[in-house]
Amino acid sequence: MLSIVSIKSRNSRLSKRVASIQDNTAVAATAVVDISEIIRQISEIQSNIAVAIDQQSMTTREISRIVAEAAMGSSTIASSIFQVAEEAKSALDEVGEASQGALDLSHMSNELNQLVAFYR
C-alpha cells in the first residue's frame, strides 16, 4: 500500500502540475487576447486601405473625365483656329483681288486722262 508520504508527494506533484497547467492556460488566454487585438487592428487597416483605394479610383475617374473634356475643348479650339485661318486667307485673297481691281482702275483712269488730254 501507498504510504501517506507517498500520497502527499503525489498530491504535491499533481498540485504543481495543475498549477503549471493553470499558469500556461492563463498565458495562452493572454496570447489569444493579444492575437485577437492584432487581428482587429489588421482588419481596421484593411478597411482603411479599401476606402483609400475607392477614393483613389473615384479621383482617377474624375481626372480622366476632366482630361477628356479638355481634349474636346482643345479640338474645338483647333478647329476654330483653322476656320479663322481659312477666313483670313479668303479675306487676303479678296484684298488682293480688290487691290488688283484698284490698280486696273488706276491704269484705266490714266489712259482716259491721256485720251481726254489728246482730244482737248
TrEMBL record:
Question: Lineage of this protein's species?
Answer: Bacteria, Pseudomonadati, Pseudomonadota, Gammaproteobacteria, Chromatiales
Name used for this protein in its record:
Methyl-accepting chemotaxis protein
